[in-house]
Amino acid sequence: MSESKKSQLEFVALMAALMSIAALALDALLPALDIIGLSVGVTNPAQNQLLITLFFLGLGTGPLIFGPISDSIGRKPVVYMGFALFILASLLCVYSKSFEWMITGRILQGVALSAPRTISIAMIRDM
Length: 127
Prior knowledge:
Elements lengths: L2 H27 L3 H7 L10 H24 L1 H20 L4 H28 L1
Helix pairs in contact: 1-5, 3-4, 3-5, 4-5
């Protein structure tokens, strides 16, 4: 395999991984949604769906933040910032004792995971 094809394959694999991390974060939550709701004190099971809806809210508003930042400071630091924020938001979700803190963590997770998603779209567009 030529060097050009190998680097193009690596680029495609990296972009696919950056795009799919948000789907992984959502799919990891779904099987345990009821258990998570019970652990944070949710009495109405319909409220558990807020954890999904507000994740998408964060995922939708994040590009408004990370797009301009990536244009000014570069793509790579923004991806690192997104992953660092995702780790902090995940820790907030893990250690939350109330439903409000869990919602806050899920919104922050959505915002954080919009960074690699936004950057991968921008890099593909740059190519």
